[in-house]
């Protein structure tokens, strides 16, 4: 099996010039416009039961079409940063999203007009409403905290070329990155995605050389990045102020259906991981011949020559590991490999990073990454397949019941990573192999408990400062290093000042604060792994049930119903952190062997 290029032709043939996609987008736009007009013509009167049910159906149909179109355009822009037609589609789909938001805001306002007694009666009597009762209740309650629908509509319109436009500017910035690299006597200009793979190369000389070039390349784009992040944060803070919100975390917490108490309980537990993980980083540094690891050493392999894992071998390893937990999960992976859902080719011109996006109408997913054969690439592939499995489980539900938040989405993906890691560790044949696998697992603990915490600290402090005015690129870099030093306990020998410029997640506007949900997902999945270990094969069915419920209850309710635990108290999180860092002792023992 060669490293694949995904097949988008089965979705909409013709790429960014697809006539089928153009027709689909026109239908989606027309349907959204018609719904928007209906809602506007509805006046101020309280909707009756029949009209409410009709609007609910049409809103969900529009949502499904929007998600389908947005996923396709995301694939187009990721696979080729030079596809200007795809960039044009991005703007058009963002406009459709703004129209949908206008319709949704009007719909929500009409929900809020319904008296409580009538609302309870209607949602209980109509199956099409009862199936999405929770998200409808959410929309009804949140409408009372927003601006009037007409003003929310204006904000949404302006956001397309303002807020979201600045977010999309990241693609322009990253497209300018071309890092000169000499290899085998030839010099090539590496894209950001190709260059990023060099940062965890087994050869320390390669890592050190690329780290300098990487920092230099992003420094050259720092002013553009600072402009974008300042405008994104400025728009968000102004809109929040108009709504009367004084906490920039209000919206991300609501989107993730979690309370501040749960967030604080999680971060308090995470702080307990710093000293054990510092110990691990110190041991790793000595294996690498250093006093302290550099920023770019954290994800480096500890072996002198990193094993290369061919793509077909990785596919087989993942499918086999999944099958030991759930035949259904393994079957999903086999389908993804056989039907070319995965874009993994290592070539210039691609966006860096990885993602999985689902097509709710096509009942498929697509996975994007750049595969170069590292163990980290195998983990990324398993991670994204976890997302695809989650998407498959909810695809039979109504569209509103498919809209799970990022924190629980990351649960499925990190759980899939853990399955693969556990299977590999069980069959490891030598101490050297076990040490390498433990290192990879602890790298994930560092990523979610230290790296993500650094991002959260940076972003919360950036928003606090941004309220008083724009920050220059140098100030952003100072904030970034300060946050990294705190999160890592000053355990590293060098830092990444321009991480804020290089990381896509800071530019994303669909989901603000694209950081703490990762840590939630990692630790929540760690807790799930403990349950799975105790219950064995019987847990697979419960796991599926939990994932199906991720869009129809809060995370606190989800954990209580399916696991019998409380998330707004420290006990669960402390246990999860203890399990996450349990590998440190085993790593230390093998280092001494």
TrEMBL record:
<dbReference type="Pfam" id="PF08439">
    <property type="entry name" value="Peptidase_M3_N"/>
</dbReference>
<dbReference type="InterPro" id="IPR001333">
    <property type="entry name" value="Peptidase_M32_Taq"/>
</dbReference>
<keyword id="KW-0862">Zinc</keyword>
<feature type="domain" description="Oligopeptidase F N-terminal">
    <location>
        <begin position="111"/>
        <end position="177"/>
    </location>
</feature>
<dbReference type="Pfam" id="PF01432">
    <property type="entry name" value="Peptidase_M3"/>
</dbReference>
<dbReference type="InterPro" id="IPR011977">
    <property type="entry name" value="Pept_M3B_clade3"/>
</dbReference>
<dbReference type="InterPro" id="IPR042088">
    <property type="entry name" value="OligoPept_F_C"/>
</dbReference>
<dbReference type="InterPro" id="IPR034006">
    <property type="entry name" value="M3B_PepF_2"/>
</dbReference>
<keyword id="KW-0378">Hydrolase</keyword>
<protein>
    <submittedName>
        <fullName>M3 family oligoendopeptidase</fullName>
        <ecNumber>3.4.-.-</ecNumber>
    </submittedName>
</protein>
<dbReference type="InterPro" id="IPR001567">
    <property type="entry name" value="Pept_M3A_M3B_dom"/>
</dbReference>
<comment type="similarity">
    <text>Belongs to the peptidase M3 family.</text>
</comment>
<keyword id="KW-0479">Metal-binding</keyword>
<keyword id="KW-0645">Protease</keyword>
<dbReference type="GO" id="GO:0016787">
    <property type="term" value="F:hydrolase activity"/>
</dbReference>
<keyword id="KW-0482">Metalloprotease</keyword>
<feature type="domain" description="Peptidase M3A/M3B catalytic">
    <location>
        <begin position="333"/>
        <end position="530"/>
    </location>
</feature>
<dbReference type="InterPro" id="IPR013647">
    <property type="entry name" value="OligopepF_N_dom"/>
</dbReference>
């Amino acid at each position: 099996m060669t490293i694949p290029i995904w097949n988008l032709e089965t979705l909409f043939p013709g790429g960014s010039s697809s006539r089928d996609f153009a027709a689909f987008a026109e239908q989606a736009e027309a349907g959204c416009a018609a719904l928007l007009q209906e809602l506007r013509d509805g006046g101020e009167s309280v909707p009756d039961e029949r009209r409410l049910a009709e609007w609910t159906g049409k809103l969900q149909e529009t949502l499904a079409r929007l998600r389908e179109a947005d996923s396709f355009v995301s694939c187009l822009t990721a696979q080729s940063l030079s596809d200007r037609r795809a960039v044009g589609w991005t703007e058009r789909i963002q406009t459709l999203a703004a129209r949908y938001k206008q319709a949704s805001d009007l719909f929500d306002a009409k929900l809020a007009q319904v008296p409580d007694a009538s609302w309870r009666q209607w949602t209980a009597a109509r199956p099409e409403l009862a199936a999405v009762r929770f998200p409808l209740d959410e929309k009804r309650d949140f409408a009372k905290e927003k601006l009037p629908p007409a003003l929310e509509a204006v904000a949404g319109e302006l956001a397309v070329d303002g807020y979201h436009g600045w977010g999309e500017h990241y693609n322009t910035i990253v497209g300018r990155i071309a890092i000169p690299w000499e290899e085998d006597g030839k010099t090539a200009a590496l894209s950001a995605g190709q260059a990023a793979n060099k940062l965890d190369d087994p050869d320390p000389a390669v890592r050190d050389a690329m780290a300098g070039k990487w920092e230099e390349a992003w420094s050259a784009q720092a002013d553009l990045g600072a402009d974008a992040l300042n405008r994104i944060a400025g728009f968000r803070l102004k809109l929040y102020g108009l709504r009367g919100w004084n906490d920039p975390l209000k919206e991300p917490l609501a989107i993730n259906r979690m309370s501040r108490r749960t967030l604080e309980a999680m971060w308090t537990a995470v702080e307990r991981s710093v000293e054990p993980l510092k110990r691990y980083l110190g041991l790793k540094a000595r294996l690498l011949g250093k006093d302290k690891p550099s920023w770019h050493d954290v994800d480096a392999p500890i072996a002198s020559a990193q094993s290369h894992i061919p793509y077909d071998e990785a596919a087989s390893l993942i499918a086999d590991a999944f099958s030991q937990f759930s035949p259904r999960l393994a079957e999903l992976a086999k389908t993804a490999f056989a039907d070319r859902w995965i874009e993994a080719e290592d070539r210039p011109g691609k966006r860096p990073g990885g993602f999985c996006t689902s097509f709710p109408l096509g009942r498929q997913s697509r996975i994007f990454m750049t595969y170069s054969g590292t163990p980290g690439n195998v983990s990324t592939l398993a991670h994204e397949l976890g997302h695809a499995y989650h998407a498959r489980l909810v695809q039979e539900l109504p569209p509103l019941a498919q809209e799970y938040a990022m924190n629980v989405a990351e649960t499925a993906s990190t759980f899939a990573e853990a399955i693969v890691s556990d299977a590999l560790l069980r069959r490891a044949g030598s101490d050297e192999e076990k040490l390498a696998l433990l290192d990879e697992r602890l790298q994930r603990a560092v990523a979610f408990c230290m790296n993500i915490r650094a991002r959260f600290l940076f972003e919360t402090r950036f928003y606090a400062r941004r309220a008083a005015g724009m920050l220059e690129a140098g100030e952003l870099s100072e904030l970034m290093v300060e946050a990294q030093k705190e999160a890592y306990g000053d355990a590293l020998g060098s830092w990444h000042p321009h991480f804020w410029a290089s990381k896509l997640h800071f530019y994303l506007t669909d989901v603000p604060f694209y950081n703490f949900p990762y840590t939630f997902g990692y630790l929540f999945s760690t807790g799930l792994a403990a349950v799975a270990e105790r219950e064995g094969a019987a847990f697979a069915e419960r796991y599926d049930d939990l994932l199906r419920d991720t869009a129809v209850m809060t995370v606190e309710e989800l954990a209580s119903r399916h696991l019998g635990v409380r998330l707004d108290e420290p006990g669960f999180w402390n246990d999860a952190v203890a399990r996450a860092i349990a590998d440190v002792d085993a790593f230390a023992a093998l280092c001494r062997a």
